[in-house]
Every structure is written in C-alpha cells, then in structure tokens.
Amino acid sequence: xPDEPIPLFNLQAQYQSLKPRxxxxxxxxxxxxxxxLGPQTQQFEAxxxxxxxxxxxxxxxxxxxxxxxxxxAAGIGPGDEVITTPFTFMATTSSISLTGARFVFxxxxxxxxxxxxxxxxxxxxKNTKAILPVHLYGYPxxxxxxxxxxxxxxxxxxxxxxQAHLAQADGVCVGGIGTAGAFSFYPSKNLGACGDAGCVTTxxxxxxxxxxxxxxxxxxxxxxxxxxWEGSTLRMDEVQAAILRVKLPLLEEWTDARRKAAAWYEExxxxxxxxxxxxxxxxxxxxxxxxxxxxxxxxxxMDFLRKRSIGCAVxxxxxxxxxxxxxxxxxxxxxxxxxxxxxxxxxxxxxxxxITPQQVQRVCDAIREFYEADATV
Length: 377
Prior knowledge:
Distance between the termini: 29 Å
CATH class of the largest domain: Alpha Beta
CATH superfamily of the largest domain: Type I PLP-dependent aspartate aminotransferase-like (Major domain)
Strand order of the largest sheet: 1-9-8-5-4-2-3
Mean pLDDT: 96
CATH topology of the largest domain: Aspartate Aminotransferase, domain 2
Number of domains: 2
CATH architecture of the largest domain: 3-Layer(aba) Sandwich
Radius of gyration: 21 Å
Structural class: alpha/beta
Shape: globular
Order of helices and strands: HHEHEHEHEHEEEEEHHHEEHHEH
C-alpha cells in the first residue's frame, strides 16, 4: 500500500479540528449584521496586540495591504526610497511602489536569507526614507543592527512579518520593534484566516491613527464624509475576525509544535549533505512558517520527493530583480550574488503544527536515500 501523501501545508487537519467552532463563530458574525469594523474586529485587534506586545493592531484586508498602509502611515511617498530584499514575495515591493516610493534592493545574508545589514548601509542615499526587512521563513532579521542603522540615518523601519507570527529578536516579538509591522493571515500562514486578511502593528500612536484612517478610505474618526487622506477600502471583515479569534488562542501552542517539528528535522537530517536552517542566538526564536534547507541538485531532489508524495516547494525560485514586471529596471544579477545562489538551492519541506515525528522521519529518510543513491553511483 502506498504511503499517504505528506502535504507542504495541511490546512485540512487544522480546519477539521476546529470546524464546529469556526462555523459557529462565522454564523454568529453573519447573524450580527455588523459586516465591518464591528465587535469581532475590535476584540481581535486588542487580543493580537496583547499577544505581540504592542499598543496597536490595525486589521486590514491582506498582508499586502498591511504593508502599503504601514508605509503610508509612516509617511513614505513619492520621491522616497525604501531599501528591501529581492528574495521575497512580490507584495513586498509592489506595496512600496503603490505608495509612489521607489524600492532599492540590498543583497541577503547567505545564512539567514534576511537582509545583509552591510549592504543596506551601502545602499543608503539622501532619498532613503525607510528600511523594509522581511523576516523570511519565520527567522527574524538582524533587527538590532537594522534599528541602529535606521536611528543613525533617521529612517523608518517597516517589518514584513507575513511569515513570522510570534518570532522574537532579543526577546521582543517581530512587528513590535520597528516603526510598524505588517502581518498576513493568508490561509497557509502560521495564523490563517479563511480567506485574505492582515494587520498592521505599531507602538506609535500617530502611525496607528493614520493606518486606521487609510484602511477606511482616509476617513476622519467618527465622521462619515470627512477625509484626512486618500485612503482605500482595505478593511478586514467581521467573519474573518471571528474565525481568527477562534484560532488566536492556539497560536502559541501551534508555534511550539512547529519548533518541535524543526528539532525532529534537525535530528533526522544529521549527516545528510544539506544545509539546515540557522540556529538563532539566545533571546531569539523563529516561527518556522516553512522548514527550508539548502541542497545541491535541488530540482532533482524536489522531483524525487514529489514522486514519493512528499510536498515541497521553492520560496523563491526567481528573485524579484529578474521578474518580468521589473525588467525595465535592468538590474544586474551579479549585484546580488547571495540572492542568486539561494534561489538555486533553497527547498522548503512540509511544516504544519499537526505534522508527526513519523512524517518528518519519512521526509528525512527520503532525502537521505536521494543522496546515498547519488554517492553509490
């Protein structure tokens, strides 16, 4: 009998375990006839802010809209430059462009896949107004060094936390370190809605007030037809807020389960010729959105695993400077050697809170088999 498939993300397992509670919460939200910015949204914002350890959480329609709102609320706009990574999802840069600002790429640290702080410093100009680090795969960027650089040059820092719920740097949750943070609640994320949703986090009262206005057409507080800014309709609906409130109390438990699974991977892949995720320093913790290795003959290994019904994926196979959407920028791949190499070698393995030791061992055994067969040729 063939082995059961191991998906990259097992959203069905989580949904089935919470199905009655999710349905009840969604129906109650629908029956309330308060579709937007109602009590479910307000309570979720308060609960998420408390968990992250920030003063403000401003819910919105997606992780991408959270980035755009955070940038605009921090005062980023036309003529400004924002330094970020080319090794990320398209929403990171498109959100910058939608503010009228210009993104500038710095290369990545080859070990953590996050922004190389020395290359950030080289890219700062008189037009630089912000740094946008991405806490990729749930591993925190070097926030101490980034904040030092930002303070030295008077820059804002907008954290892309889409993959890093409850990750910590120096004992502080990401999203509460820079000027603002942006979280995604896309269904596959560590905390996922049943559709698109996101939020902005900040300790800055002015940034929070502007973010609340921007997600709601730029509306002035408590005034239906007075507008302070050119905003848009970027709100999260009450149904998504209700569903997220069902899941939020379990996020710490799920994060611990991901970390246990990462420890199983580390043990199971000992001696296999692949590079494992970095071990964070004391006071740091990662949230393991995915478990990502670096591997020689990556594409062959990926095919090998898929033939054995083991889910895997590449985040990201093409750096942003090579995307057709940015061809007009004519950026030189040789300026980003670490990004270029990472795109050729990274491979993300199955990771979800419900994964079992046996499933992890099966993945590890398959990877070991691939390289041992290669060694005997």
